[in-house]
Amino acid sequence: MLDLLITHASLPDGRTDMSVAVQQGRIVELTPGLLAPAHEVVDAQGLLLSPPFVDAHFHMDSTLSFGLPRVNQSGTLLEGIALWGELKPLLTQEAIVARALAYCDWAAARGLLAIRSHVDVCDPRLLAVEALLHVREQVRPYIDLQLVAFPQDGLLRSPAARENLVRALDMGVDVVGGIPHFERTMADGAESVRWLCELAAERGLRVDMHCDESDDPLSRHIESLAYETQRLGLQGRVVGSHLTSMHSMDNYYVSKLLPLMKEAGVAAIANPLINITLQGRHDSYPKRRGMTRVPELLAAGIPVAFGQDCAMDPWYSLGSGDMLEVAHMGLHVAQMTSQSAMRQCFDAVTTTPAAILGLEGYGLQPGARADFVLLHARDPIEAIRLRATRLQVWKAGKVIAATPAPVAQLQLPGRPASVSLLAAPAPQTPAASRH
Question: Name one GO biological process term (predicted).
Fold first, then answer.
């Protein structure tokens, strides 16, 4: 007897009326119309069953700290960095853990079951590192949490940052991070990329660098990152996050850069909510959007994921852990409104970041972990349009969160008493006019 059988599900790849059979926390069969005895049977009623959402870029050490010790009045990147510098001496491990766990509760409720979080290593106490290592273990039963050793104040610019970063990796942090555009000079930025990539190669680790988070078209550290990736044989293990300067570069240079990234196997992570908010601040009008060239990267065969980046912290006072909100913003900013492009935006918060993070057993196929989300939508485009309610969230075949379907009660003359906030009515063909 199966542990769980989900019937009549629609899948993100367009298949409909699918059944998903689960035994011992894994998918054992995925086929249309399967009928088999099971301890639990769920009729999806044609709604979308998706693999879990994945956030490829987040800062969990600062999440939910909005207003501490003061509010970012300008809402700018530089004031956010300065404010984080004020907050760091006041941090306690207990407070970081409490805020991170609260955010993970939000994440689980929204079907966000894998997060890659950067953690600042420039505080010599490494309080945030210790705190998030504890959180990683505590949430392991329901969230895959990867940690990136991130020298927020610059690897070369911040005293002891190199030593602290190595200590963080020794403590169990998973990924090597960096921020070359925040070094004092372009040369220092390139040197930081070289040193960090060599460290990752030596330890067999992945690399995820904040790279060229700037409106400066001459901020080109992604070129150095692609070079070092290929030189050191790190293909498929390296990501450039943000890459906002690419939005300001001339087309000729980008025509050279994209093949270099593709050849080196470097992926990209855009953070639509934050990129569109923080970039272009020095512009009057015309005003740059700031997000990297997502359609062009995808057309070049470069994987692109979307990240939440921030939620209620010194840099961003909004955010809720909703990756469909992230996809929704990315779709609009990148003008990805074709049918195929909108589905790519759904992939950018599910399958693409899962591949970038190297998640084991992710996806909807036999043998994969029975982790999935039933959405109050019928396909990925409708899910993005509605920021669809997560009706049920499963981890290893067990429900870990559930939310009622959104139904509004109406009191309108001549109209229904209630309306499901799922979809617009099917378009009606105009009746032939009568003469």
Answer: cytosine catabolic process
Query: Sheet of 112-120: strands edge to edge?
Result: 53-58, 112-120, 144-150, 175-178, 206-211, 238-242, 266-270, 304-306
Cβ(300)–Cβ(315) below 8 Å: no
Residues pairing with 149 in the sheet? 119, 176
Distance CA 211, CA 187 (A): 14
Given 40, 79, 213, 263, which residue is catalytic? 213
Supply the DSSP string of 38-100, one letter for each residue: EEEEEE-TT-EEEPPEEEEEE-TTTTT-TTSSS--SS--HHHHHHHHHHHGGG--HHHHHHHH
Structure tokens at 325: 């909100």
Q: How far is it, in rounded angstroms, from Cα 145 to Cα 170?
A: 17
Question: In the chain, what are the domains?
Answer: 2-51+363-407 (2.30.40.10), 53-357 (3.20.20.140)
CA 119/CA 173 separation, integer angstroms: 9
Helix (H) or strand (E) holding 193: helix 186-203
- Other beta carbons within 10 angstroms of residue 57's beta carbon come to 27
d(CA 30, CA 147): 33
Closest CA to 54 of 384, 282, 329, 307: 307
Secondary element (H or E) of residue 269: strand 266-270
Contacts of residue 427, defined as CB under 8 A and 6 or more positions apart, other chains included, come to: none
Amino acid letter for position 127? L
Cis preceding linkage at 69, omega within 30: yes
| Mean pLDDT of each 10-residue bin along the chain, 435 residues long | 97 97 98 95 97 98 94 85 87 96 98 98 95 98 98 95 98 98 97 98 98 96 98 98 97 98 98 94 92 98 98 94 98 98 98 98 98 97 97 98 95 94 63 49
Token duo for residue 105? 């509760």
Model pTM greater than 0.90? yes
Q: What is the pLDDT of residue 429?
A: 60
Check if 228 is active-site: no
Task: Please tell me the distance from the alpha carbon of residue 319 to that of residue 273, in angstroms, as a whole number.
Answer: 8
